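Box 3.1 A note on notation
Throughout this textbook, protein chains are presented in two layers. The first layer is the amino acid sequence; the second is a token string describing backbone geometry. Keep the layers aligned when reading.
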Amino acid sequence: MLQKKTGLMYVVLLQLIFNNIINFGPAIFASTATNGILRTTNEGANWEFANIGLSNFSISCVKSFGENLFASSLGGGAFKTNNGINWSPVNNGLQQWTVSDLLMTNTRIFILTGAAGIFYSTNSGENWHNLNAKIQPLDIRSMCSNNFFIFSIVTEGVFRSSDNGNTWIFSDIGLQNSGIYSLTSKGNLLICGSNNNGIFRSSDNGNSWKQINNGLNDNLSISSLASINEIILQLRVQENYLSLRITEIIGTQFKYIWL
């Protein structure tokens, strides 16, 4: 598991473009836009590729469901592994294999396929079912959930469902023209990252949003967010470096643990 530390964590990883991170067992996995998946078992000191079984290396995200880790790709559909080393495709029922994101709830896995919309599985990815008639527009960038709702984001705002994706309502209060890219939940808070406007927070299940950039540095483009216990992970790329910033939210400010 990650531990709070002080100091610098910049790892030279060639010219890779990173878009998602997850803690799975003793390892951290990072997905890349063109080079597949990397894994570290020593909190980022060393990284290795974990691409065995992947037919497409344009990986949009990696997420866990039970004892399995899933990866979505931009052209090869979805993949699954139970050991973080060997991957198998799980695409039965998908109408398009360009998959931008995955969401896991207690009973369903949701998959985003761009213009083909949202699909869900109730049997760990063995079969997928179409959910397109339930939500419009279809250009959904990311999804997350808390104990009560499922959330999906488009550039203009956030959709929320209280019945496992069967019906949705939309809110953009406080998010107008923000260019939302990423979304995660932390306890009763929702945190979303934007293209150039930093981070926004909602404490009322997405009804309204407030910008909270106090404590952030000058780079306000947040490509990916993840929540582990009491910390928020921000993934950014600066020149040829992977920047993994670990922060705590204290009131309405961010406190860096790793810079």
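The chain has one domain: 26-219. Residues 249 and 255 are 6 Å apart (CA to CA).
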